[in-house]
Automatic annotation (TrEMBL):
Annotated protein name in UniProt: Unannotated protein
Organism: freshwater metagenome
InterPro entries noted in UniProt: ClpP/crotonase-like_dom_sf, Enoyl-CoA_hyd/isom_CS, Enoyl-CoA_hydra/iso, Enoyl-CoA_hydra_C
Family matches, as Pfam families: ECH_1 (PF00378)
Transmembrane segments annotated in the record for this chain: none
A molecular function GO annotation: catalytic activity
Amino acid sequence: MTSPLTSGPVLLDLADGVATITLNRPEAMNSLDIATKEILVEVTRTVAEDPEVRCVVLTGTGRAFCTGQDLKEHIGLLETGGSDQLFTTVEKHYNPIVATLMEMDKPVIAAVNGVAAGAGASLAMACDMRIVAEGAGFNLAFSIVALSCDTGASINLQILVGRAKALELLYFPRTVPAAEALELGLATRVVPAETLAAEAGELARRLAAGPTRAYGAMRRSVSYAAGHSVADSLELERQMMNATGATEDHAAAVAAFVAKQKPEFRGR
């Protein structure tokens, strides 16, 4: 079982099959310096590989979910000759983190407690669902600092809102408030800030008690179908159906259905 982290810039809590990853730099609005990104690479990989973790929640402390790259560190590195660390961070940190969030074979929820900007917005969009506090919002702030988008924004933003709206939000960044985010499809659900943790936790526990391998196959199939032909997508569906049909959970669920009982899933 994964060991929890109870201090530092990234916290990890484990309970009832749910791994909650909390960005914990409230004084810096949970911006991502190199140290934080290196821990986040390891933590996301660890929970992805842990069979006891059946759902993952990503959230933040304080008034921000995550404001993306730590620009204070960024400026310091530019001024002290550390620019090589800046221009390798997408390859070393952002890409591995977002790939793990998108590709792990278990559901991932973002509990967006405050502003999600730049790479922080990208991280939230990489999750299956975004439960958003009423006072939170999204800002695709890349062009403000004359940078392209990263951390999967080019993939996930247009899937959620469509190509034209995605380019508008990237070209003309602004904070999209929670209510508008819900209308656009950036938010799955908007809730009062005081109930965010409880509602995200309840959803995560429900998913953690479900057929984990079936959820993972669904994630993979939906992601694959977004960029492949009908024939190729149907072939992957066939493979995933065969794979989940051979699971213990499927056998137990069929037996429970015949017996008119509620199935108990074990994620196997």
